Each structure stands twice: as structure tokens, then as C-alpha cells.
């Protein structure tokens, strides 16, 4: 009897760079072009022209809403943004017990608790309408969960949502206790729209892997939050702003950048895993930051030029430009978002993308099960007696 030799598995590049693992109708990132889109629309143009709620509708239902559809959609979001008092009280108690935790950690914990208290069922057992309902009601409450965790941590009273202000206005109200100006609402809406989705990034891919198992929607979102908590993913905006604080003046920018490179450190806020030039999100956020004004925005623009000059000298074959995180912190700080809330605010938008991908993934029936290439000691070997170990 003859046997056919199995082909040697091909080892994927580090980080799965360039590996296509699925088809999607949700959007794409074309890194060499400096372009990304949601469905058939340029994502930066959406951020300029339409509301956060409209982009949310596009992501979940596949098309931009008509005027009547938007009104119904806003009502649906508003209904789900306000939790029953007993459930809200239970979640606040969970927050109090972990009040010292980072707000993103608290979000991870409370989304898990929310799923348990609501009795979330596996996606595998739900029909399409039930899945969408689970997606909307989870994403709609994230702004409240995030702001409540922040306020509990500070020993302050939790504020209820104000749906009449819209998702962005309500979030800023719950976080700061003040009604945001229209300029601040528009600026934060731009940021949130720009960060709803961005291809198969680490958190989105993680959420899809869990969705492929048929798990409940909350479990998939919790997995995404876990991936987002890493400093190489969602943690970068605050670190980029920390770097601006460390630099202080434009004269220090070039020496600081050279010192970072000499120490083998990443220059936070510059370079991207996909883009090989300008990050279109950074361009729009730079414009937004400058429009809001202030010393930090002015410094950020000057420092960007100096850092890019140093990076071009050090890495002439690979242009490293400001990414979305560089100006994200400047914009959020200008809108009144505390620095510790930058990544949780990122989650307010990215949960929309996660839920869209979770819904798409759940329509398939195949679990993710990649292979690995074993690189340990040769096997099998005889198990040694205990005295010989």
C-alpha cells in the first residue's frame, strides 16, 4: 500500500500580514493607495458628510438610511441606550467592585456581565433578526457603560443617557456633565466615524474568530475589547499625546525622535501596519484638530513635520507618516474627553464595526481552525523515568 506524502504547510508571515482569511462586504483598506472604505463609500467622506448614526446604519444594514429610516433607526438606538433601572444598578455595582480598574477593563467586565444578566443565547441558535437585535442593543449601551465606569472610578454620580442629544452628544454629556458645543460634537463624530472599522485589524479579527464558534454576541464583543486593550492597538492615542507632552516644544522634536530610534523604541503615532504613506484618517483629524484650535494642535502640526523629517533620514526606503492615533488624542482632548478615556472612546465606535463583522461571520457555518508549524524538540521521544528527569 502506498501513501501520498502530505505537502509541507506554508508558514504565514509574522502577524498574518497579507494573508486573506475571508471575504467581506463591510469594507476594505487599500494601504498602498492611502484609502479605506465602508461598503461602497470613501470612509473619510462619510466622516465629513454624515452622522455617526447614519454610518452605524450603513455598517449593520448595508445601506445609508433615508430620512424616514434614519428617524426609526435613531429611535431604535435611543430605546436600547437606556437600560432598565434594575439592570443598570446591577452593572454599576459590578463597576464599583472593580473601580480601580482601567475603564476599558471595566467595559470588558460589564459587557460580559450584561450578556449574562440578559441571558444572551449563542449566535448559532438565533435567526437573522434576533442576531441584529443583539448587535444593536449591545452597541447602543456601550457609551453608557464607558462613561459610567469612568464616573464610578472617580466616585461621581452616574449620568443617564440623553438620546435627544444624539449618540455623540449624549456620550459627551454623560462623560463631562456638560452639553457639548456643536463644534465638539462634529469633531468627535468625525473621529468616531473614522474608527468604526478598519479591515481585519486585531480586534475585529478576534471578534470574528469567536463569532465563528457560534458563541453569543457579548462573548464576541468581549474578545474584541480584550484585543483592543493592547498598547499596540487601541492604547496608542494616549501614548502619542504623552509623547507630545514629553517633547514640549518644536525644538525638541527632532532630538526626541532620534533618541527614540537610537533606543530601538517605536515612535508612537507614526507608521502603520497597512499604510505605506499617508493615513487618510490622520489627514482628516489633523484638519479637525487645527479647526478646533489650541496650543496642543499647533504643536502637534509642527512636531509632525520634524518627526517625519527625522524618520525620512533614518528610513529612506520606508516612509513613516502620522497615523490615526497621532491626532486622535489631540481631537479628543479638545472635545473634553479625559486622556484615560481615549481607548474606551475608541471602543464606542469600534464596537459598531465589530458587531457588523460578527453578524457577517455568523452567517457562515465554518469555524476558524488554522494550522501551526511545530518548532519544538523532535517528537516522539520516550517519556523518561522520574529519576532521570
From TrEMBL:
Task: Kindly list the biological process annotations in GO that this record carries.
Answer: carbohydrate metabolic process; tricarboxylic acid cycle
A Pfam family the protein falls into:
Citrate_synt
The catalytic residues are 272, 325
Task: Write out the catalysed reaction.
Answer: oxaloacetate + acetyl-CoA + H2O = citrate + CoA + H(+)
- Molecular function per GO: citrate synthase activity
State the pathway, as annotated in the record: Carbohydrate metabolism; tricarboxylic acid cycle
Please give the Gene3D superfamilies that the UniProt record associates with this protein: Citrate Synthase, domain 1, Cytochrome P450-Terp, domain 2
Give the UniProt keywords, A-Z. Transferase
Q: Which GO terms describe its cellular component?
A: cytosol
Which PANTHER family does the protein's record reference?
Answer: CITRATE SYNTHASE, CITRATE SYNTHASE 2-RELATED
Q: Give the protein family.
A: Belongs to the citrate synthase family.
Q: What is this protein called?
A: Citrate synthase
Q: What is the lineage of its organism?
A: Bacteria, Bacillati, Actinomycetota, Actinomycetes, Micrococcales
Amino acid at each position: 500500500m502506498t501513501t501520498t506524502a502530505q505537502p509541507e504547510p506554508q508558514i504565514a508571515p509574522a502577524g498574518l500580514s497579507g494573508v486573506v482569511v475571508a471575504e467581506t462586504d463591510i469594507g476594505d483598506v487599500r494601504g498602498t493607495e492611502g484609502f479605506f472604505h465602508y461598503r461602497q463609500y470613501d470612509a473619510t467622506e462619510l466622516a465629513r458628510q454624515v452622522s455617526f448614526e447614519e454610518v452605524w446604519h450603513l455598517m449593520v444594514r448595508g445601506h445609508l438610511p433615508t430620512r424616514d429610516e434614519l428617524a426609526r433607526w435613531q429611535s431604535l438606538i435611543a430605546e436600547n441606550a437606556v437600560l432598565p433601572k434594575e439592570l443598570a444598578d446591577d452593572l454599576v455595582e459590578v463597576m464599583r467592585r472593580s473601580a480601580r480598574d482601567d475603564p476599558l477593563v471595566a467595559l470588558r467586565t460589564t459587557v460580559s456581565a450584561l450578556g449574562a444578566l440578559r441571558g444572551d443565547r449563542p449566535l448559532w441558535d438565533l435567526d437573522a433578526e434576533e442576531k441584529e437585535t443583539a448587535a444593536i442593543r449591545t452597541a447602543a449601551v456601550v457609551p453608557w457603560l464607558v462613561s459610567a465606569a469612568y464616573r464610578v472610578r472617580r466616585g461621581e454620580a452616574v449620568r443617564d443617557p440623553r438620546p435627544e442629544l444624539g449618540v455623540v452628544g449624549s456620550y459627551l454629556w454623560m462623560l463631562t456633565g456638560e452639553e457639548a458645543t456643536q463644534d465638539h460634537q462634529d469633531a468627535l463624530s468625525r473621529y468616531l466615524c473614522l474608527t468604526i472599522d478598519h479591515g481585519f485589524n486585531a480586534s475585529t479579527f478576534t471578534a470574528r474568530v469567536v463569532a465563528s464558534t457560534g458563541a453569543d454576541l457579548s462573548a464576541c464583543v468581549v474578545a474584541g475589547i480584550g484585543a483592543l486593550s493592547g498598547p499596540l492597538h487601541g492604547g496608542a492615542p494616549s501614548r502619542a499625546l504623552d509623547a507630545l507632552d514629553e517633547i514640549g516644544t518644536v525644538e525638541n522634536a527632532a532630538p526626541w525622535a532620534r533618541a527614540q530610534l537610537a533606543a530601538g523604541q517605536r515612535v508612537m503615532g507614526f507608521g502603520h501596519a497597512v499604510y505605506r504613506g499617508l493615513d487618510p484618517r490622520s489627514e482628516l483629524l489633523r484638519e479637525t484638530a487645527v479647526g478646533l484650535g489650541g496650543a496642543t494642535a499647533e504643536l502637534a502640526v509642527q512636531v509632525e513635520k520634524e518627526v517625519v523629517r527625522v524618520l525620512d533620514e533614518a528610513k529612506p526606503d520606508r516612509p513613516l507618516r502620522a497615523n490615526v492615533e497621532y491626532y486622535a488624542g489631540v481631537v479628543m482632548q479638545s472635545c473634553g474627553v479625559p486622556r484615560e478615556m481615549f481607548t474606551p472612546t475608541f471602543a464606542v465606535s469600534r464596537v459598531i464595526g465589530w458587531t457588523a463583522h460578527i453578524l457577517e461571520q455568523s452567517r457562515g457555518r465554518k469555524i476558524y481552525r488554522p494550522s501551526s508549524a511545530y518548532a519544538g524538540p523532535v517528537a516522539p521521544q520516550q517519556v523518561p523515568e522520574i529519576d532521570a528527569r
